[in-house]
Design a protein that fits this description.
Length: 513
């Protein structure tokens, strides 16, 4: 009698969060073993940099770092859900990567159902979507926001519960980080996957997506998504809605209503009464149609009626403005992954105060302005990295593990780096990686797929800018007390501090774009 075949499935679950208490419900799915198929859970803390409270203070159910080997927490510093998911995915070493939102409630058997969904999938299947249920009130009609949330139940490829094969995810560059909200970035990824020849299927596992409480005016704020729709059009063409199986929008009607309203007001001011009356009548008719389309299916309570009245008047011009803004912003958009800039920093004396042969993480102290400089670069979409000579390893003063521990402390204080390169050799070893040799610069560019002409090296001594020059990159020197005058004189670009150095980098970025 043959043994029953056991499914071989391994996945890393990535959960981006802005500190919602609902995160605890997601993590509860994985608290009690067994966790079939789930090798690790990565929580990506996407709160802005100025919120420096430990995540455990915000989400009480989150255990202290290191208390559970399967759970890790990394920070993405408010870069948005697309960038947060990419950061979490970079931690994965498993066959699959599963994305869950922090406001869903996975079913009790979610991990077992996930294994069933993944087991035996054909190699050309790159992703599988879970089923999303949105519970609506049974004692009254759902309001406008609840009905919008209910659309998640039929939406395609949304990351409320979506699992991708890691090789396919990496092949297309992950999520497009130019989508700043949890809107359209999932559809864009799916379209790029399918254009790459991959199949996407639906699974049987289920999550519940409750309708969370929102402030009045959420429907007006949602119109920011029209800018993202312009990005979708720029990337995938005018048929993008059909390709993404997305419902038709109302933008054409919104623009028409806005034009009629603005035209009527201008005609009235110019004394052209008949033209004004006709245009304003069209504006009133269009606004009334929008109001009725939103109000009739809803609760029709007094508060809801008032909300529908004023938001129906505000939505068309707001939508039109964001669509115009998106069209201008994305008029020359490149395919993702776009050719981004890479800014490489020397570590000791540039990002942190130089402690000779430091192997103690407790002695790490960032220089003034380092956190702000890195945050500005990350916010501008640049990669950031470290290249550092650590001859103390080659000379026997340090262990490589101590260097790594110090680097982790630098990341804790200054945020994540996209690439790190370390030369552990002594000067007399004659290696090709020790600055001013260019190898670390070239390897960092190759690791991220960045052309060397889009790379900048910022350091405090001549070896840093010489390594940049030898690689074909640009170098900026930020001198300190140990920088020799002849090194300053030889550098092509010298700036007094990190802030002004980043100003220079952002000028170059703007010129090339």
């Amino acid at each position: 009698m043959s043994a029953v075949r056991q499914p071989v499935v391994d996945t890393t679950v990535v959960v981006p969060t802005v500190g919602r208490p609902s995160l605890a419900r997601v993590l509860a799915t994985f608290l009690a073993p067994p966790r079939p198929g789930v090798a690790a859970v990565v929580v990506v803390d996407d709160r802005p940099a100025d919120d420096d409270r430990p995540l455990q203070e915000v989400v009480a159910a989150l255990p202290p770092d290191g208390s559970r080997s399967w759970l890790s927490v990394v920070r993405s510093y408010g870069r948005g859900p697309a960038a947060a998911r990419n950061l979490g995915a970079a931690e994965a070493r498993t066959t699959w990567i599963s994305f869950l939102d922090d406001d869903v409630e996975p079913e009790a058997a979610w991990t077992a159902r996930l294994v069933e969904d993944l087991d035996g999938l054909a190699p050309d299947v790159a992703g599988t979507q879970g089923r999303v249920e949105v519970p609506l009130p049974t004692d009254r009609r759902p309001d406008d926001f609840a009905r919008a949330t209910a659309g998640l139940a039929t939406a395609r490829w949304i990351t409320a519960d979506m699992t991708y094969r890691r090789t396919a995810f990496v092949a297309v560059g992950g999520f497009d980080e130019r989508f700043p909200r949890a809107y359209r970035e999932d559809a864009d990824l799916a379209l790029r996957m399918r254009a790459n020849g991959a199949q996407l299927v639906r699974g049987a596992r289920t999550v519940v997506h409750p309708v969370r409480a929102e402030r009045a005016g959420v429907s007006v704020r949602a119109q920011r998504g029209n800018a993202d729709d312009r990005l979708m059009r720029a990337l995938h063409g005018p048929r993008w809605r059909t390709l993404a199986e997305a419902p038709p929008g109302r933008l054409v009607r919104h623009v028409a209503i806005t034009v009629l309203g603005a035209g009527g007001a201008l005609a009235l001011a110019a004394g052209r009464r008949r033209t004004a009356v006709a245009a304003l009548a069209g504006w009133a008719a269009g606004t009334s149609e929008l109001f009725l389309a939103r109000w009739l299916p809803g609760s029709r309570s007094r508060a809801e009626t008032v909300r529908m009245l004023w938001t129906s008047a505000v939505i068309p011009p707001t939508a039109s403005w964001h669509a115009l803004r998106g069209a201008v912003l994305h008029r020359r958009v490149e395919a993702w992954p776009e050719r981004r800039w890479l800014v490489l920093f020397d570590r000791d004396g540039t990002l942190v105060h130089d402690v000779p042969y430091n192997g103690d993480p407790e002695k790490v102290e960032p220089v003034e302005g380092a956190a702000e400089a890195l945050q500005r670069l990350r916010g501008a979409g640049a990669y950031v990295g470290i290249i550092t000579n650590q001859s103390g390893v080659g000379r026997g003063f340090l262990e490589r593990e101590q260097v790594d521990a110090v680097n982790r402390r630098v990341e804790q204080l200054l945020g994540p780096f996209d690439v790190e390169k370390i030369c552990p050799h002594a000067p007399e070893d004659g290696c090709a990686c020790r600055k001013p040799a260019p190898r670390m610069v070239l390897e960092a560019c190759a690791a991220l797929g960045v052309p060397v002409e889009r790379c900048v090296v910022i350091g405090d001594i001549g070896a840093d800018v010489e390594a940049a020059r030898a690689a074909g990159a640009r170098g900026i020197m930020v001198p300190n007390d140990v920088t020799r005058p002849e090194e300053v004189a030889a550098a092509a670009f010298v700036r007094p501090d990190l802030r002004s150095a980043v100003d220079e980098v952002l000028k170059w970025v703007a010129q090339v774009r």
